[in-house]
Design a protein that fits this description.
55% helix; globular; 3% strand
Length: 208
């Protein structure tokens, strides 16, 4: 996609990143577990990382105005776009837009009703505006972990990882987590966080 944009001479692209988070319900409106939160219940957390969990929020920077998941999305997409010579603009991450989203009535934000009504006004039918298909990457993550990532985990356990040496990941706990993954059934709340081990291992191996 980036190559196609660049071929047409575009040097700037306006994205929709942050749009979902802009109109998301708050913890007060809809109590839910934060995504990506490190939990000491994960069996592969190493002793050093487990001991540090108690101090995870000490002396950290103030929370950003932009949602952490949005920031992660921007961090992930920026290198690809910038390498292609494209400067990304993210209007939904502007602090004023975020504040506007917080001010919108609850009924407009619940289940993205504002977007659904807008699509309906444009003439799209209920198959689009009230789709029964779940909007989630859960199936993609499950497929990645149970197919493409499995050989990589085997290599990590065989050859070692900087994460083992630093005490951040416990190899025996990782083996146990993988046995649970192989035995099934797949648990989105638990198994999916194995993907973080892959991400951190590849990042550590690239920089060390």
């Amino acid at each position: 996609m980036t190559e196609l944009i660049a071929q047409h001479g575009a040097r700037t692209v306006v994205t929709g990143l942050g749009g979902d988070e802009m109109v998301a319900l708050s913890q007060q409106e809809y109590p839910h577990k934060p995504m990506g939160e490190i939990s000491d219940a994960l069996p592969w957390i190493g002793a050093r990382a487990r001991a540090a969990l108690e101090f995870a929020d000490d002396a950290i920077a103030p929370p950003a105005r932009v949602n952490s998941i949005t920031l992660l999305s921007l961090e992930t997409t920026a290198p690809v776009l910038l390498r292609a010579g494209i400067w990304p603009l993210h209007p939904f991450t502007d602090p004023d837009m975020i504040q506007l989203g917080e001010w919108l009535p609850y009924d407009w934000r619940e289940l993205k009703q504002l977007r659904r009504r807008r699509l309906a006004a444009l003439g799209l039918g209920p198959d689009v505006t009230q789709s029964r298909t779940r909007e989630s990457f859960a199936e993609v993550v499950q497929h990645a972990l149970t197919t493409e990532a499995r050989p990589l985990f085997d290599v990590i356990l065989k050859d070692g990882s900087p994460l083992f040496e630093a005490g951040l990941i416990d190899p025996d706990g990782l083996r146990g987590g993988l046995r649970q993954l192989d035995a099934g059934p797949y648990r989105e709340d638990g198994d999916a966080q194995l993907l973080e081990v892959v991400d951190l291992h590849l990042a550590a191996a690239a920089f060390l």
